[in-house]
Amino acid sequence: MTNSQLGFNEGDLREAAGSTSFSRGEEYVGAVSGLDIGDGTIRADVAGRETYRVTLVVTPRTRVTGACDCPYGADGTFCKHCVAVGLAALRHASPAGPRPSAEADPAPAPRPATALPRREDMIAPWLESLDREALLALLGEESAADAELRGRLLLRAEVARADRTTVRDRVKGLLDAGAFARDGHADGDAVEAYVQQVAEAVAVLRALIAAGRAAEAVDGAQWALWRLGGVYESADEPDDLFRSVHDLVAVHLRACRTARPAPEPTARWLVGHLLGPIADVTPADPVGYRDILGPAGVAQALGLATEVWQRDPGSKAVRLRERLLKAHGDVDALVDAYAADLAPDGATHLRIARELDEAGRAADALEWAERGLRATARRRDVDHQLVEWVCARYARLGRLDDALAVRRDRFQSDTTLHSYRSLRSAARACDRWETEREAALERLRADASRHSGSSGLADADRVLVDVLLDEGDVDAAWEAAAGRADDRRLLTLADRVRDHRPADALAAYLRLLEPLKQSTGDQAYQEIARLLRSIRACHERLGTPQEWSRRIAALRTELGRKPKLMKILDHNGL
């Protein structure tokens, strides 16, 4: 597949995201995994603070839109994760890199050249070419120069020679918090020291795996996680142990994949672990252990979790049972479990839709998502990702009018700048924006007129002002604010009208300046300088330089006892 077949280019991604998010997205291309390029749809996971799911939809009219379940994507933003997936898809389609944007002049075809291998790719063949003596000499030389490497090699050597009891006692000693616990709890310094000990224990367990003793590492990791659970419950700042939990689970999973322990005891341990004190922070997932447990182990774990759930249907048991149903591959049972407790905002409908879609049941997935939209039709707090998922699916199916209808309904239920922008994008895809725009603005003006007598901007007024600014109709936005704008919007409005309405802008800047004169600190002083530069520009536009001179002289006299402010004004030529 080529970039032209994908239907978008790097320029389209930059336009959708903005320069800042685009630059950040470039840094995340290496974090993209599970890239799935379909007909008009691209899906992938992006590892960040968490692993986020991204879906890009490509249509001839809108080029590329994206949905991501990260916090910024949840607000409808084409975030850095969307950029990363788009760039990864372009590089997959064209290994030499994405083609230039449509606006760029086509570059001449380069002459064939022999590509140099990446530096990382050169290491393994070179090491394989060395004989035993050369490898030993290299390790000796490098370990002598690198204390950390020497320490890791020494640990490997010690563990390889130590018997089972010695290694077990070493891990237990490192996980013993008795020396740090005080009065039944561990303070911050104690936890920090304990985290270092856990890291050492993880290194010992990794050394066991390297020494061909993965079964011992399985037992050691399970005991360490059990012990860590007790410390987690007593710690003043338990979040500090987050990385320790993750590292121990990672080494346990690695040891299990090497040792292949019996499924039944592993199933019992996994259920106990996921119902224990660190269940909320552990990355252990039954789906990740599915290949280790096998069908019999997954079935046993599901049975155990179901027994607990029936006795006490708390959140841990519910979540564990759902993940085990997924690991078991019983999609219908998983859907039934989700459907037993549907969230009022439609989030559960979306979870069901995604599970069905992943199982290859696209029609059932869309039906559940549409059911979620109908169930939340009159709500303002609808799960944003549900709306995005449905609209992306409609676009993929060529049902642009249906996508527009969803956006229109959401705008009517939740009149925000975001819902207005989404309506605009959907209407433009259908060449119907002029009609939709008039209806949307009429709705916003009607909402605002009901609050016209209030002293400040009501929510409806703020949305109307923001929409008019977004549309570039700054004069209409200024009139809509009618002297009632909050400081942030007033500053934005003044900046936008300054060139053609300098008198109005000047009055706004002076209003904002007055309370700042009572403030102190660098941030307030910088803001004063920024307002004064704008005030000077207004006087220049008005042709009143003498009035500006009198104004700045009076201010310097009034605030002359603030030397730091005076220095900042001097620096700004004020």
Question: What key phrases describe this protein's structure?
Answer:
66% helix, 574 residues, four-stranded antiparallel sheet, mainly alpha, 28 helices
Structure description:
The protein has 574 residues and is mostly helical. Helices cover 66% and strands 5% of the residues. The protein is built from 28 helices and 4 strands. It has helices spanning 3-6, 10-17, 19-26, 80-93, 119-129, 132-145, 147-161, 164-175, 188-210, 214-234, 242-259, 263-274, 290-311, 315-328, 331-339, 347-358, 362-375, 384-396, 400-413, 417-429, 433-449, 459-471, 474-481, 487-497, 502-516, 522-542, 545-558, 563-571, and strands at 32-37, 41-47, 51-59, 63-68. It has a 4-stranded antiparallel sheet with strand order 1-2-3-4, with helices on both faces. Strand 2 (41-47) and strand 3 (51-59) form a beta hairpin. Helix 12 packs across helix 13, helix 13 runs antiparallel to helix 14 and helix 24 packs antiparallel against helix 25 (502-516). The model is unreliable at 96-118 (pLDDT under 50).
